[in-house]
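Customer escalation, tier 2.

The customer says the design service returned an amino acid string that "doesn't look like it belongs to this structure." They asked us to rerun it and document both sides in this ticket. The original structure tokens are below, unchanged.
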């Protein structure tokens, strides 16, 4: 039997192995390590919550490389994984979703579910959609829709500089930023638009020099891991007085360099929620997470994904992918932060409440600062779930 079953006096317990595949070395390592801690913590939480399934997380380093990702996935499956989890790098995600589809077709007795918690290239739930792939992060178009809806309310923005990573996700961010700004704020002038090699730039000072020379008052970037941290670090060192509209400034190390810029409430991030949001239960969960892991939660979508996965397995009465997938694609669950969340069966995209935050000194009512900076994330914009829904071109091949 694939996987393990442990027999107790009361009932059998299935061990569900999860192959976590993300960068654990190189420039993306802090981001990957943070993601790993989220899933390891949720495994502990869910194991304590119920006894039917025991979750075990196996960690694999893919170095943000598509080929390494596929090799890691095969290693995980060979070790008994029933679920593969990956998030950082849409090029790696594209390779993984293709691999999982082919593997499941060839190995009906060893099928796996692919949980995508952070790879946001829209193609993954459009032309490259896959029955076995479930995305719990908002895609980059949804994020840009929310971000530009916020930008259009800020008349002080006149000149924008676009800087993004040179791969499918970064290209999508720059294209959608151009298109949406043209529609919503045609008065805004785009004074720069360039891409940089993914996780290979060690000094962004030359790029910041160009941003200053352009006269930009704002920067839009989808950069993540060292590519956002080093960009902000160079901005701080150069005294660049521009606002930053980002996808991932809250990632590991980000708050520290934002604090160094001194730009209070001028660095923004669009996300599914921050530590100072949510009800009492979410706040207590955050406190427990920080006490256990030593970091703040940057991936509330990992919590959503694991909760949805457990519910689907409980409803299926099994951890077998062919039984879990039909339940997971019908998932309706309240997100960790926000009002409503659900998976769309048409493309397996999870929709949830979205927020725009700014980073600045702690204020009354804010419980959590980030990375010991004395600054925290404050909500400045909110988009309800129903207003994040975009159409899909997915034509999903479903198993017979």
């Amino acid at each position: 039997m694939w996987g393990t079953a442990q027999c107790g006096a009361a009932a059998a317990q299935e061990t569900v192995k999860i192959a976590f595949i993300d960068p654990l070395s190189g420039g993306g390592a802090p981001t990957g390590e943070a993601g790993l801690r989220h899933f390891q913590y949720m495994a502990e939480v869910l194991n304590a919550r119920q006894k039917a399934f025991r979750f075990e997380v196996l960690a694999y380093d893919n170095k943000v490389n598509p080929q390494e990702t596929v090799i890691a996935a095969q290693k995980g499956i060979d070790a008994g994984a029933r679920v593969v989890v990956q998030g950082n790098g849409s090029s790696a995600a594209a390779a993984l979703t293709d691999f999982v589809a082919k593997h499941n077709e060839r190995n009906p007795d060893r099928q796996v579910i692919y949980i995508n918690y952070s790879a946001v290239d829209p193609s993954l739930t459009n032309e490259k959609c896959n029955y076995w792939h479930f995305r719990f992060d908002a895609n980059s178009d949804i994020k840009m829709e929310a971000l530009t809806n916020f930008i259009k309310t800020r008349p002080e923005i006149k000149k924008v500089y676009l800087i993004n990573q040179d791969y499918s996700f970064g290209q999508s961010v720059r294209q959608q930023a151009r298109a949406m700004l043209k529609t919503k704020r045609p008065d805004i002038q785009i004074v720069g638009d360039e891409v940089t090699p993914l996780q290979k730039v060690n000094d962004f000072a030359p790029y910041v020099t160009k941003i200053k020379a352009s006269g930009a008052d704002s920067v839009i970037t989808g950069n993540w891991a060292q590519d956002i941290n080093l960009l902000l670090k160079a901005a701080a060192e150069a005294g660049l007085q521009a606002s930053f509209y980002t996808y991932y400034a809250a990632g590991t190390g980000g708050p520290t360099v934002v604090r160094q810029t001194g730009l209070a409430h001028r660095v923004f991030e669009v996300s599914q929620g921050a530590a100072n949001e949510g009800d009492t239960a979410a706040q207590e969960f955050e406190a427990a997470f920080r006490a256990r892991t030593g970091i703040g939660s940057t991936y509330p979508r990992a919590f959503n994904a694991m909760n949805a996965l457990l519910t689907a397995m409980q409803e299926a009465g099994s951890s077998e992918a062919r039984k879990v997938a039909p339940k997971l694609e019908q998932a309706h669950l309240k997100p960790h932060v926000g009002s409503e969340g659900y998976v769309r069966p048409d493309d397996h995209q999870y929709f949830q409440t979205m927020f725009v935050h700014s980073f600045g000194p702690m204020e009354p009512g804010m419980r959590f600062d980030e990375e010991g900076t004395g600054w925290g994330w404050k909500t400045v914009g909110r988009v309800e779930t129903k207003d994040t829904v975009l159409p899909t071109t997915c034509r999903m091949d479903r198993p017979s």
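Tier 2 assessment: The sequence is consistent with the input. Residues 207 and 231 are 8 Å apart (CA to CA). The mean pLDDT is 94. Sent an explanation to the customer and offered a walkthrough call.
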